[in-house]
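Q: What would this complex look like in 3D?
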Amino acid sequence: AQSVAQPEDQVNVAEGNPLTVKCTYSVSGNPYLFWYVQYPNRGLQFLLKYITGDNLVKGSYGFEAEFNKSQTSFHLKKPSALVSDSALYFCAVRDPDGQNFVFGPGTRLSVLP
Amino acid sequence: DARVTQTPRHKVTEMGQEVTMRCQPILGHNTVFWYRQTMMQGLELLAYFRNRAPLDDSGMPKDRFSAEMPDATLATLKIQPSEPRDSAVYFCASGSGQGSSYEQYFGPGTRLTVT
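A: Here is my prediction, written as structure tokens for the whole assembly.
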């Protein structure tokens, strides 16, 4: 069965500093991995995905994520955080043979001015 | 700018009443998902459709919830009768289901409060 863990409920970072939001997964076979962001009172927005190829994936709003197969991780990163990045971030995984997505519990990112 | 739309955005109802939530997926998307989001449970998959056919509704309480796609431009989620524990934000998402690598596009959600 597929599963996703986001070990941190909350991440605080100062504006201008690099940020990392962690995600680990469990899936049989090669995973498809996704990051979504949710701003208050809004639906989830797609940020980026890893399907195959280069382990470093670049996405929207300056975010990137690194796929690490040996550590079964897909951490979200940004070199310089903005206050406007404050939101709820979800990691999701899909088994290529499966039908649906499994979302992690979410990590609340707070960027402090 | 193609978007998933959901109506109503907010719904307050009394326990025992029927609730119907509607979703218009992005034109051309053939896969539709219904999710429920609460503080306690996070994001839960309720049901999803491909080419209007239900593929999985194992996440739904079958005795009171039902999901349908009357046509390719409309998906509905009904709760009858509603209960206070159904209070949540319900999201619809659509995707272009080519293989399994597609991302989902979420609507703004329907915030349901059952008193």
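A: To summarize the key features: Chain B touches chain A through 21 residues (CB under 8 Å). DSSP finds no helices and eleven strands in chain B.
Q: Very helpful, thank you.
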